[in-house]
Amino acid sequence: MRGIVFVLLITLVGSQKNDNEPGFSNLKSYLYNYTGLIQIGLEDGDLEKSVLKLSCQVKISRVSQEDHILKVLSPQVEEYNGKWPRDPTLKTPILTQKLDLCFPEPFKFEYRRGCIGNIYALKNVSVECINIIRGILNLLQISVNETESVYELQEDGVGGTCLTKYIVQEDKAKNESTISRTKDLNNCTNKVMKNIGMAYVRPCPTCPLNITNTRGAVAFNYRLKYMDTGALITHVDSRQVYTISPFNEVGSTAVMDTRQNLTLIETTTNQDKMPGILLQNYGNIHYQFPEDLPQMALHLIKTDNPEPRMVEMLEWLIQESQLQLHTETPAKFLELIELSRAATPEVLESLWKQFADRQQYRRWLLSAVAVAGTTNTFTFLKQRIHEESLNSLESAVTLTLAFHLTKTSSLTLKAAADLITCPGVQKSSALRIVVDLGYGAMVNRHCADFRPCPAEILQPLHDLAAGAVSEGHEEDMVLVLKAMGNAGEPGSINYIKKFLPGFSSTAHALPENVQTEAVLALRKIARKQAPEVREILFQIFANHSLPSKVRMVACVVFFETKPSVPLVTALANVVQRERNLQVASFAYSHMKVLATGKIPQLYDLSAACRVAIMLLSPRLEKLSIRYSSVIHIDGFYRNYRAGAIGRVYLMNSPKTLFPSVLAKMRGYYATSAMDIAEVRFDLEGLADIFRTQDNPFAESSTYKKIRALGKLLKGWKELPSEKPRLFSSLKLFSHDIAFVLVDKELIEKATKLVTQPAEMLTALFQNGITGRWTQPILAGELRHIVPTCVGLPLELGLYSASVADVSAKVDGKIFPSLTNDSGPEQLLKASLLLSADINSSVSTHLVGVMAINTPHFQSGLEFHAKFHASIPVKLDAKIDMKEEIFKFEMTPVQKQTELLGVRTKCYAVSRNVDEPNSSLMTPVPPDMIGFDILEQCFGSSKVRSKRQRSMFDIASRAFTYGLKEEFHHSQRSALCSPSSYIKLSSLGYQTCLTMKECSTVFFKDAYLHRFFGQCEVKLAVKPEAARTKIQLEVQADSKSHSNTIHLRHTEEDEDNEDNESSSYEDQRAKRKKWKTEVKKEAAKTKKSKGTELPKFLRHNKSSVLVADLRAIQNEKKITIFHLELHNELHTSRPTVQVFVSDLKESKRPKLCAGISILDPQKAEGYLKWGRDCRDYNIATKVEYGWFAGYPAMQIKVDWLRVPPRLEAAASGLSTFVPDMACRLGLSQREQKNPSQQTSVVVALTSPRSCALVLKLHNVTLYDTNIWLPLPLPVAQHAEDLAMQPHAWSFISFIENLKGRCSVSQDTITTFNNVSFRYIMPADCYHVLVQDCRPELKFLVRTKKAEQSTDLIMARIDFANLEVDMYSSNGLEKLRINGTEIPPENLPFTFNSKGDILITHEKNGLSLKAPEVGIENLFYDGRMLMIQVPFSMTGKTCGMCGRYDAEYEQEYKMPSGNEAKNAVSFAQSWILPSESCTKESATIPRGRANRY
Q1: What is the pLDDT of residues 400-437, one digit of tens each?
Q2: Crossing angle for the helix pair 410-420 and 375-387, to the nearest 10 degrees
Q3: Strands (E), 63-175
Q4: Which one of 16, 126, 369, 1046 has the minimum C-beta count within 10 Å?
Q5: Half-sphere exposure of 488 (CA within 13 A, CB side)
């Protein structure tokens, strides 16, 4: 009995379980009404929207245990464009007919326990139709949990597998249940989406989901009726909301609101059977994208026969751009791109045959085909390269665009690989760079979803690597490394290791630049295989035998991999023990800037660097600008989820004068990052190229002597010779685009072209230059496509196209004519006549869309922004180089011309491909009743009188400002905000800037709405007369004073000028009254220094520079202003003054400015303007001194009299500056300071930090420790700054970078500022310093004098001279080549140029020979000091050291090895002789120090 009861209980439970599961009876058919509605618009509910509605009846029948049949009956498509839901939707018969064709036969789908399985349909049914069926079936997808009423799970749907939450409510009385189902479309494990044009945007997998700017969710409500056969779905409604907020502002979003409704209307007897025809499996419920690239969502074009449309479009582009660019040209170019994507190979070949010989058509066609990005277009370009039918420029431009914009596939990759070995490509080094780098970028995009990347795809790059290693060409090795770096595949690591020292036995012999590129090639690989790459980079950085630059680049890449705290700490331990100060300084500086980062995605790395910095020695903080460092600027705006980083890596080397520079910029937005641009420069040995080398050093006796003496030194090695070279590379969006490697031969050719310009200039002046260049480009195509619950695709897109057009006609003449051997000196004595007519313009069209985009219809929101700029220039120039007279005439425009225009507008759009003329574009907000604000500006009567105000009265009111208010209330309740304009009349032209803003009462104060509301901005120019020109005449060192500015006038002269300038008696009376007041004031302050007139004019001295700016109207010259610049630089008070006058009124100055250096510690300046420069006055003082025991600079600005508007602006700044200072972390204190004065004190507390005190009217701002991004090139310690000869050397970069070495009182101070005590043995010459390059230009020796141990002797060998300096009887003597030079014969010069000069100076002898590398050598018997230029860095040796800033490795012996101590170091530089014994050398008690 118990067993029977148990069986019955189990049966009861099982039957109840079946009742709760959704399903259909196999005995009945179920007919549902279905409606799907999509509306897209701004968040405000009362604005225009685009609406699309799909409706039909759906019949569902069960034909087997899991198989069901679905029939779509009476489909209908309706649309609406306007303010929803004011009017009913409109039926669209053509779209309805197309939709009806989608459902000719029933569909089969698998359905079990509420889950949709595979979907089956006829073979020829389009993917778009299947997706609509998926949208309907998505309503039937439901997972019922009998044990819980609230639960969540990852569930399949149209949008992928996403987090779904359920709430179940049962009504047992009615035998029904209600289920609420919600999905978070941002939390999906397998999200269905498609990104186009975002291959270079890197996602952040660790970023939280809530910082995204796009959000999506969908909610379902089910009503289930429990039947005997299970739970029957009687009603389902859903609502999906997808929002995008570009600026992450609350209430400022574009919204797609999708609603579905499925209601059971009747049930009938099931008479359906399984279809007898074979059906194709189209997969599960997940949305599927079609294979073909969908059209851009900004137009809808029929592409079934593209050739006629392409010809028509080319004709339009050529005709409408004959004179100037049409504003619609970029939009038409986008259509041409769309048609090119649809073109077959036959169509492309046909078009090429038509237009290959027509240059303008050819350029537009190639530009469109290059960016179309299809396999057909890429194959077409490949064929043109094989035929060599494109010139070098066309090939480089089109291939660069095609490689980076073409959709990758096996066919395109094969075509790209064929181009690598193409003979036409191999002939040109530029094309080889484009193709190889482009192939690497194409591999990177193709293998983004493949792990690992197929070996056959990487093989062409690996073959290139093997060939480059065997041949050993530097350029080939750099190229293949950059190509593999573009690919960024782990499969290339072993090939890259062949170029890395420490991983290959032959890599140490490779050029340093190749090793550097090998390290950089690991950057992208680290994104896929970070642990292995970090291990390689760490080994390279820790290898002290490698070049400094290679190790520093390894440090850069290491930190780009975002290492953890233990790895960063391990690197810090290496830095702590590092003796190479360039590497240590670079790593420390890099960690320092990373520790202060503000980007959320780098917070973990910043924290790790802050920990590591605590482990490092403070000595690294005090290193100067000579050491490698990193400059870092970043910012992140949390409210907008956007930020950017800019970094400059400066990698110094003791071998080169210029540092290697690596600069990059990266942008961050929401959960993604993008490397925008990166440039790299390496300059080596350029200083030697440009330095004159008249003496053949290798043939001089000095060279032979120095080489012979060097052989006496144990193990002496000269430094290797430098190969002058210039290397530059460019990266865009993390891919190498191009690089240039220029060697000595090319540099010399370029130098010859500059120094012998006759050939180039002769061609210009004989033939002139005439031409026009038009270049269209697809500036951007970013598309993010996601499915809606209806089964239609929603596209969020950003499109941008630009067209640049430049036409030029340049002619010229030169007198006298140049000959073939003419150099720059002949050019400086010639007269030039140049005439140029240049018209340049650029037009850009940017479109942002949120729309349903299908091949048949589009419905959504579009934002259009158009930018157009045109700069016409007609210039005539007459340049007399000998007389130093320069005259320029320019005719900007001859009629009213719009120079700049920006227009924005938002539309609700509905398009139908079969009815192009019926497309609807409703403005959002609605248009207003317009008026021409530009015409109103030029026609305004508010033009100020030229006699009433001069152009120098800018601070008070220099322009006319107009404001027009028109409030128009239309049926759409639109309100138009005021339009405004600014008008400026000067130089014979009227300039108008107009701003026309359109808004609605519903618009909010948000950036998104501001972009939609700003309608138009224009900048236009109009000549005041029919023929107007602008003339500028400049004369240097003028002796003509026809227009000289006068400051002193008699009263009679002033009255005469008043009569000329005005005929109004009241104005004359006012001027006389003003003159009287000025005279009284001048009498009171007669003895005041501040009221004295400038000394230059009183003494009537010649002008250094005179300039006149005139407007020529109808051949009549009107001088607008006259400028004179005076200077007295060779006096005790160097002074520079500038005076400007408006000669239309008088010759009196209207603006005066000057600056004077009062003494080595103080300078002052002034700015005065108004009548006789007396109305307004601003004074500035700059002073150097001490502040709190530190050297400091103080700047004071006093505004004695300023216009009211300028005073109001200063008052506003006094409020704004404290607020910004508080945000930056400065302290502040309320304090009463002078009301018309601002002062700032900057004190240098160390080379890398400063203190700041800023005094404003009511507050004092200060900070005692401001970190400087770069150390200042001054002494290393603050107390040493006091030893500067005068305060101006505080900022003298050149002087502080020069190397100084001295020997005095048994103390030797090296170029690197390391001092040690050493007693030289008697009669032993020591090499103090010498040129250790292969040229061996000079040698300086020193030894103790025989008569006294306090005296030293010096011998200098250079330029076939042997110069001895010694002391005898208290006098310094000079002997040259064995002949004593009497004091009366000084100064002594050698050669005609006077490059070598020996003089008496400060009780001693001074020798200057800059051409050989001796900036200054001073000898007074007890002290010998030598100074070398910064260009000698790393090129010296001897007891003065290498001058390489590596003071911790100072004691380098002739062999290059490091000595154990100072004695061994000094003794290694003794030149052996019979009278010299090293054993007599001693070192006093103590140790070497660095001061």
Answers
A1: 999 988 888 888 999 999 999 888 888 888 899 999 99
A2: 20
A3: 67-83, 90-91, 107-112, 115-121, 150-157, 160-171
A4: 16
A5: 23
